[in-house]
Amino acid sequence: MKKTHLFLIFAALVFTLGFKCTPKIYHSAAEPIKTGAEQTDKYLSLLKGKRVGILANPTTIIGKRHLVDSLQKLGIDIVKVFGPEHGFRGNASNGAKVSDETDPATGINIISLYGKKRKPSAEDLANVDLMIFDIQDVGCRFYTYINVLRDVMEACAEHNKTLLILDRPNPNGYLIDGPIMDMRLKSGIGQFPIPIAHGMTIAEFAQMINGEGWLPNQAKCKLEIVKVANYKHDMAYILPIKPSPNLNTQQSIMLYPTTCMFEGTILSQGRGTQVPFTVLGAPLLKGKYTFNFTPKSIPGMSESPLHMNETCYGIDLMSYDIKNLRKTKRINLQWMIDLYKAYPDKAKFFDRTQSKQMGNIDFLAGVYEFRKQIEDGKTAEEIQKSWEPGLSVYKKMRLKYVLYD
To answer: Which stretches make up the Peptidoglycan beta-N-acetylmuramidase NamZ N-terminal domain (predicted)?
Structure first.
């Protein structure tokens, strides 16, 4: 027998024995993220035979179907829907008051919590046995849904109702950054002593509200939580539906912790365009920047945006690589610093007198020092260093309430 044949036989024998002696290792793709709402097997038993109220908006979905429709189809008695800012159907503009109504699709009464009142009343909850909270948050102090969460928890605690939270991922869950809010600046865009980006899901935040005694008289709301399956805070999560009219792209959602700060300046952050929170500019920056955009009135998004019908010049972040933010895990302050330096009328850079809160950088930053730090020419590193030790204390406190790595 030729040596070549002997070698092939030997090689085949070694391969066969090796294959038999080595255990198989299966490399499967990571399990897909499943929201709390999608895991109906974990909460339907809690709803059967109950009169159910639900805090909901367009993000309250299972697949492509609204949760209210899905639960009704499964025989659950939804007696009342509560709507937050932008309304149950999500067609109200930023800050616009929302009225009570009857949902034409289901005939269910819809109670607005962004109109005459901010929390359910005793009358609202009289025929409700259990409340559900299921809306998509984006992980920022000035995004008002955590305020609604607190208000609903307060009402449930007052009237002895259990609150079932169907948790959803935080698309900015990787980010914990910003100054801890000075409670002297408490307002509609800041209710808690937390940083700008808090790094928590809604269910985790609810546990923090209970645990830190942030309800009146340190009351406790009875919580039931359905966790997100297969989720970690640093995971990238593409939202299946926009969480509000002006967070209409994944880019806007990821930039929001940084670019929303510009609502405290004379610069447009793109309201009145189809790319809000991904462009920054003002008319007086002509000659400093070549990129430009023109805000218009857009019903359902921004009826009267800043610098409406004026050409704004500034920065285009539509193609900015979000991986840079995920890598640094910091809010990008350099854009604020650079645009302030470039703005020719610095005395008016932080002048937004048409609004006492949304137009005030102190309320957005949550501290009085931020404005002066920018005006004094502090570097991003110097400003972020001033957020300590408060930020580190918060991160340690947060660990008591996290549900995910």
So the answer is: 52-250
Give the Å distances, CA to CA, from 269 to 144, 297, 302, 308: 18, 14, 12, 12
**pLDDT, tens only, 157-185:** 999 999 999 999 999 999 999 999 999 99
The pTM assigned to this predicted structure is: 0.88
Give all domains of the chain, ordered by start, each with its CATH number: 40-226 (3.40.50.12170), 250-367 (no CATH)
The arrangement of strands across the sheet holding 279-282 comes to 279-282, 312-316, 292-293
**pLDDT tens digit string along 90-115?**
544 444 555 667 777 778 888 888 77
Its sign, for the CA torsion 181, 202, 240, 80, is negative
Check if the beta carbon of residue 263 is closer than 8 Å to that of residue 358: yes
**DSSP string covering 44-63, please?**
HHHHTT-EEEEE--TT-EET
Q: What is the 3-state secondary structure (H, E, C) of 179-205?
A: CCCCHHHCECCECCCCCCECCCCHHHH
Rounded Cα gap, residues 126 and 222, in angstroms: 17
